[in-house]
Specification:
Layout (H helix, E strand, L loop, with lengths): L2 E8 L2 E8 L5 E6 L2 H6 L6 E4 L12 H10 L21 H12 L5 H4 L2 H13 L1 H6 E3 L2 H8 L12 H15 L3 H6 L9 H18 L5 E2 L14 E2 L1
Parallel strand pairs: 1-4, 4-5
Antiparallel strand pairs: 1-2, 2-3, 6-7
């Protein structure tokens, strides 16, 4: 049996969607840490995850620039600049902004800084585990949906009723009309939001493309960062 997975951060840690490639059985779960996404049943051979992985020493990643160009206005704003490596251990937004301002001439937003703990968690795992590096790939859900809809971005925000409906329709066409209820289980929306579920399903859709050798990357020949991690977005 070959399982693939897609994961997105949520208030409880990480939300994961998995699918067995032959039987098409699906499984959903919430996990406290990123290592659990790989070790907990069903263990995915390939996990697509919505988090920046390769981190630049300075400047913006080419994959982020390309993703913004693909999405256009207004969805380009959903692609946050990846933090520079020297800033990810900052303990406050002001510290992170000070480091980034000195090197890059820009500040770090509160929303971007909110992702730093998850970025540190994934970065630490990948830097210390060759197995994790072979199984985890970075995606961006809006780029996954862009690819899913033949290169046309979903203009409406995922937080709006119209935006949620369009993304949910894709998920239901692929995984069945009961997929949202099945995915949510007993988890409250304040702990696992609908868009957390849909973003994880978008990641899972890309994982399926990776497993079938159909996926592409932004950019086409991804560079690596100073830790040897690929700076890419897979779709």
């Amino acid at each position: 049996m070959v399982w693939i997975g897609g994961a997105d951060a949520c208030r409880l840690g990480w939300f994961r969607a998995c699918r067995e490639t032959a039987s098409r059985q699906v499984h959903f779960g919430v996990f406290e840490c990123v290592a659990d996404l790989l070790s907990s049943w069903p263990q995915p051979d390939m996990l697509a995850i919505d988090i920046p992985i390769g981190l630049p020493d300075s400047g913006a990643r080419e994959c982020d620039r390309m993703a913004r160009r693909c999405l256009g206005w207004p969805r380009r704003n959903s692609v946050f600049p990846a933090p520079i490596r020297r800033a990810i251990n900052a303990t406050s937004q002001s510290e992170a902004s000070g480091i980034t301002l000195a090197i890059d001439g820009r500040m770090v937003s509160a929303q971007a800084f909110g992702l730093f703990p998850k970025i540190r968690e994934v970065d630490a795992l990948l830097r210390t585990s060759a197995e994790a590096r072979s199984r985890i790939r970075e995606i961006h859900p809006e780029i996954s949906f862009w690819s899913w809809t033949d290169g046309k971005a979903i203009v409406e925000s995922k937080k709006t009723p119209a935006g949620k409906a369009k993304r949910q329709a894709l998920a239901e066409q692929w995984l069945g009309p009961e997929v949202m209820d099945s995915a949510r289980g007993r988890h409250l929306k304040k702990h696992v939001a609908d868009d957390d579920i849909l973003d994880a399903i978008a990641a899972l859709w890309t994982a399926a493309r990776i497993e079938r050798s159909e996926a592409a990357t932004l950019p086409g020949n991804p560079p690596t960062d100073s830790a040897g991690l690929r700076m890419e977005i897979v779709y």
